[in-house]
Amino acid sequence: MPSVKDLRDRIKSLKNTQQITKAMKQVAAAKIRRAEIAQRQARPYAEALSAMLRDLMNAVGTVDHPFLKPGREGAPKGVILMTADKGLAGAFNSNVIRLGEAVAREDKNLVWYAVGNKARNAAKRMTQTTAFDVSLSAGPKIETARRIAARVSDDFRAGTISEIVLVSSKLVSMSIQRPESRRLVPIVAEKSVDAGNGPRGAVEFSPSPEAVLTRLLPKYLEFTIFSAMLETDASFFAAQLIAMNNATDNAGKLIDELTLQMNKARQTAITSEMLEIVGGAEAIVG
Predict the structure, then answer these.
(1) Which spans in the chain are helix H?
(2) Domain that includes residue 92, residue range
(3) Using only C-alpha atoms, what is the Rg of the chain?
(4) Tens digit of pLDDT for each residue in 255-266?
(5) What is the pTM of this model?
(6) Alpha-carbon span 160 to 156, nearest angstrom
(7) Is 89 in a helix, a strand, or coil?
(8) Tens digits of per-residue pLDDT, 177-199?
(9) Looking at residue 124, which CATH number applies to its domain?
(10) Number of domains composing the chain
(11) Is the pLDDT of residue 220 over 50?
(12) Nearest to 107 by CA among 69, 73, 78, 149
């Protein structure tokens, strides 16, 4: 059985750990508010951009743009694997990396574009090529998104990769962060069905739908990556908030259990000392 001193040291260490996890929980709670605000502010632009892209692709006949054409046959897929830079967020990063590994098992011919330190480390462990890596917090996110979009676009146009696939996390709720995989390029036209919303007014594009679409497609890729980065930030802080809250509660339970053990050990030590004193006194009297 551990001594009273050992138990006291363990309780002190757990209290220090509990203070750290409690502070990290408060930091995550503050940061997730800012991340959610940034995500909500970007959402109207993303919705308008998607609607405009859908209208344009339905309005034009043919556009000579690489994003609307299949990639070079036989070229590997380009996968943007996006995680957080740090850990201590439960299984958040592991779930995204596990989905990336599942994509790699389905198709061995891949090229990784790692976004986030955890994604970079995971990509290095895999057998495929890592063409590009950057930290999620490397400067302003919009600038980082432009760098990533420019690199994958250049590789797709050059025929180095045949597709651009994004593997990232989606914030469903504060307690649910779901990893998802989606193809960004080539873009396939989808007919829009606005059931129940009534007829939509005619939209005029200047100088022409083809010209607008040609300018819009690179912006669409940039903002999709930027939106995924904001989503990853919010998902990470939500996962970290839950993980640190659980760690704080578990530390409190362990402290209570060890305190009970320490009190029992102390009582046992006191009882032993009293028995020794009584035995010694009786021996002297005898």
Answers:
(1) 4-59, 92-106, 117-125, 141-157, 209-285
(2) 42-228
(3) 29
(4) 999 999 999 988
(5) 0.83
(6) 6
(7) strand
(8) 999 999 999 887 665 544 445 44
(9) 3.40.1380.10
(10) 1
(11) yes
(12) 78
